[in-house]
Input
Amino acid sequence: MTATSISQTLITLLRNQEFLKAYQDLFSEDAESIDPINPTPGPIKGLAKLIELEKQFLAKAKIRAITISEAIHSEAYFSIRLFMQFDINGKESSINELCVYKVNAGKIISQQFFIS
Output
């Protein structure tokens, strides 16, 4: 898959709140993530760890709304804007982030989030 086709599939899955499927279908086994709200310093490495952390988030969050922009592409990279409103541990919250992905050999190998 190309970065363009991966971005289109990712956007569809995220808009449908199929977050785990996005990881399972589109990410490399050795993918890494840089997330400023991760409690552990440094990148998160490995698909299994990314899925585990996503499951933990989904277990405690109730998503009320999600908006995903169309992608902007530059060769092996693409970015999207994600805005999500959710309840977590009974409290309303939201996140507004720029997500940057790198694709290699038909899979996402890295993601980095910039949060405002």
Observations:
- The chain has one domain: 3-115.
- The first strand starts at residue 27 and ends at 34.
- The helical segments are 3-15, 19-26, 47-60.
